Amino acid sequence: MLNADFDAYRLSEEHEALRDAVRALAEKEIAPHAAEVDEQARFPHEARDALVKAGFQAVHIPEEYGGQGADELASCIVIEEVARVCASSSLIPAVNGLGSVPILLSASEDLKKQVLPSIASGEAMISYALSEREAGSDAASMRTRARRDGDDWVLNGTKCWITNAGESTWYTVMAVTDPEKKANGISAFVVHKDDPGFEVGPKERKLGIAGSPTREIYFTDCRIPGDRIIGAEGSGFKTALATLDHTRPTIGAQAVGIAQGALDQAIAYVKERKQFGKAIADFQGIQFMLADMAMKVEAARQLVYVATSRAERGEKNLGFISSAAKCLASDTAMQVTTDAVQLFGGYGFTKDFPVERMMRDAKITQIYEGTNQVQRMVMARSLLR
């Protein structure tokens, strides 16, 4: 009756080995700096160096561009395990994915060869620029413009909420090339930090993920070569939406990692903390909280893995499952980190323990790559189509 070869629904040995390797690296090289990175709101250079040295900064890039050619599930496991100890650091592999997926999906072979090898080697990072101050959830109303000038493109406008801006070398940028066509008049481009007319703004002051810089970026007659357009003119918005189907589960993975980290901290704490002559872990009220936290984390993890596996297979109609994974995981991260702070009591409210940082970091996962209200709209439209 029991069949040890039944593997229709389990991680491969390679995925499990990858998890062990990333967890060991995260515990040794990233966790010791996480509190200081948050406190000083500085970029986690130690994490970046460790990830690059181990080849974990962008495992998804195909072998033909110098990458490891790992699947999307492997990418999620890397992000999850780094986020378990430091959410800011997990945005290094996560945003390298977000910025490069449009190139992988839609760019010419020449453009792929121009950009991807430097990310695969760790020499460069890439950011993603879609949002504007007046075009957040309504991304199609963006005002950044790109016009042809001879063989070049010239960009003008401002993008905001750009994760890792200032640290990245490359930027995948959405801009309007034909205002008359609305969403079908948006094109995607790759901008290099040294392109004339490109500038990075000051860092935003944020509630969480303080170690990952978030900035505006400015284009003032920013001139880029004509071959840096991603795909056909006017196809940018379709590429952006297709990208999110692949990358929303990675934000789900980040959220699962944050939640798992908080759960692990809470379990260790309640075993040590004594009240009324015994460890508080012996109290049923505490046990029920832990059980609910763990149940939600595992449910979110499984949904993220299913969503990213379906994306890897190239299944159509990924909208529902990708949004569901991101939404459930991020709501779970917020609930679980809040409960972890509660279990620590007064100590949980201090910076002496990591759960307050995890609670602050969890909040953004409900907001970026589409707020959870937008995720629910996407899911409902999919159901009612």
Describe it.
The protein has 385 residues and is an alpha+beta fold. Helix content is 52%, strand content 15%. The protein contains 10 helices and 10 strands. It has helices at residues 13-40, 45-54, 72-83, 87-106, 109-121, 236-272, 284-312, 319-344, 355-365, 372-384, and strands at residues 126-129, 145-149, 152-163, 170-176, 186-192, 198-203, 214-225, 229-230, 274-275, 278-279. The strands form 3 sheets. Strands 1-4-5-8 form a 4-stranded mixed beta sheet. Helix 4 (87-106) packs antiparallel against helix 5 (109-121), helix 6 packs antiparallel against helix 9 (355-365) and helix 7 (284-312) runs antiparallel to helix 8. It is globular, with a radius of gyration of 21 Å. It starts with 12 loop residues before the first helix and ends with a helix. The model has no long low-confidence stretch (mean pLDDT 97). InterPro entries: Acyl-CoA_DH_CS, Acyl-CoA_Oxase/DH_mid-dom, Acyl-CoA_Oxase/DH_mid-dom_sf, AcylCo_DH-like_C, AcylCo_DH/oxidase_C, AcylCoA_DH/ox_N, AcylCoA_DH/ox_N_sf, AcylCoA_DH/oxidase_NM_dom_sf. Residues 12-123 form the Acyl-CoA dehydrogenase/oxidase N-terminal domain. This is Acyl-CoA dehydrogenase.
Blueprint (SSEs and pairs):
Blueprint: H1 13-40, H2 45-54, H3 72-83, H4 87-106, H5 109-121, E1 126-129, E2 145-149, E3 152-163, E4 170-176, E5 186-192, E6 198-203, E7 214-225, E8 229-230, H6 236-272, E9 274-275, E10 278-279, H7 284-312, H8 319-344, H9 355-365, H10 372-384
Parallel strand pairs: 1-4
Antiparallel strand pairs: 2-3, 3-7, 4-5, 5-8, 6-7, 9-10
Helix pairs in contact: 1-2, 1-3, 3-4, 3-6, 4-5, 4-6, 6-7, 6-8, 6-9, 7-8, 8-9, 8-10
